[in-house]
Amino acid sequence: MVLWFFIFSCLLSSSLFFCSILRAELITSLPGQPSNITFKQYSGYIVTDAHHGRALFYYFVEAEAQNPLSRPLTFWLNGGPGCSSLGYGAFMEHGPFQPGRDGNLVKNKYSWNLESNMLYVESPVGVGFSYSNTSSDHFNSNDTKTAQDNLRFFLEWFKKFPQYRNSDLYLAGESYAGHYIPQLADLMLKYNKKKNIRAFKLKGIALGNPLLDIDISIDAAEFLWSHGAISDDLLEMKRSICNDTRAILEYINGNVSKECALVNDATGEEMGDDIDSSDLLLPICLSENAKQQMVFFRNKLVTTHKKIDKRAAIGDPCLTERIYMYLRRPEVQKAMHANTTHLPRTWDFCSGSTLKYQMQNLASNIMPTLSEILKHHIPILLFSGDQDTKIPVTQTRTIANMLARELKLIAIERHGPWYDGDQIAGWSQSFGGSISGKNVTLLTFASVRGGAHEVPFTSPSQALTLFGTFLKGYPPPRANAIA
Q1: Nearest alpha-carbon partner for 210 in 352, 370, 95
Q2: Which CATH number fits domain 17-218+309-483: 3.90.1150.10, 3.60.15.10, 3.40.50.720, 3.40.50.1820?
Q3: Is 415 a catalytic residue?
Q4: What is the pTM of this model?
Q5: Catalytic residue among 305, 388, 420, 459
């Protein structure tokens, strides 16, 4: 019966690609995968618009547990806009494997599938292996369309994985996912108000170094100065002539003033070329391939004032190069059921050439959306690596405090250190309110000591502890990790 329904659906569809990507795909084994892997992996495409021939690529990793259905489901998006959750989230940060120096995969002992079923999606279309047969989908992408597409993705994905429809659902992401995730959550909460539907069991949202309010989030002058990266004179120039927000907004509007160009040039000269704004601490990769990519990114990003999320952070300095090579291998794409329609482009971390996002969306203030989510008693975790200059820890902490004051949340825990094992992992504060006579944590801010823009990449153990305690409904541990 299922087969005939599939064939009938294909005959009705005007797009041949609809047929080739309709099925959920089990990954039997990834090339170079370690032996004795006990959890299942799936990947493939979900059609979000059959008429346009639009589909999002996903990679789903079941929890490494005796009964995966006993664990929650976490949906992860990276930012950009236009960067891959497969390359960054799954293979660089907290997926089960990372490419080793010999080309084989190495098991990640800090994989988030130790705590949750993990669903990585390359969104919007035009990112990674996701695509559309309608060219305008690539050139008119924006926050609203992305949120709507992600909602449709979920509704269709649950048809293929109905066993997870009743799972507790968490939405998580970093950087520009500070736009994607709250807007998707808002649509889910509105969808839940409809009659005769199966509601999403949305239980929480986690955002790492998120872009939330461009007037606050990206203002890095004080942070750079306090770390000795810029001079007193340049700090005063950023304060009085052109701050980071103005520079980005002028770039978005295609009208960079002489004042901002002057400050941007001075910033590049003082900070130097061979530094990654994602992480002030760690070195760059010195392989020849990585050097060539670094030159490309550097030229591009100096022009755009280091647009958010277009370069990799550096934990293992050359890991991104190995991921880049691994995901371009034909046998890897075949194993993952990716690129089944032979896209006219190669996979890349960020899709600047194939995706033209409406960059004016960067100026949208997401704080009102977060406020509405909190009013629905959906807990939110804001975590921030303290070595990131793209979206500094100081700015995310400011936003968390503003949200707490606006909603009149009380301090459930005072600001203080949280622990990963016996080591201080960062500092945190939790806010909440009384629900049914009980104090409940609703908003948590946590810094990650030594963490970068992609916290799970540079601080994997701390990130796993933070993630695991959040899923359990706890604030970050104030002593040894919660058993």
Answers
A1: 370
A2: 3.40.50.1820
A3: no
A4: 0.89
A5: 388
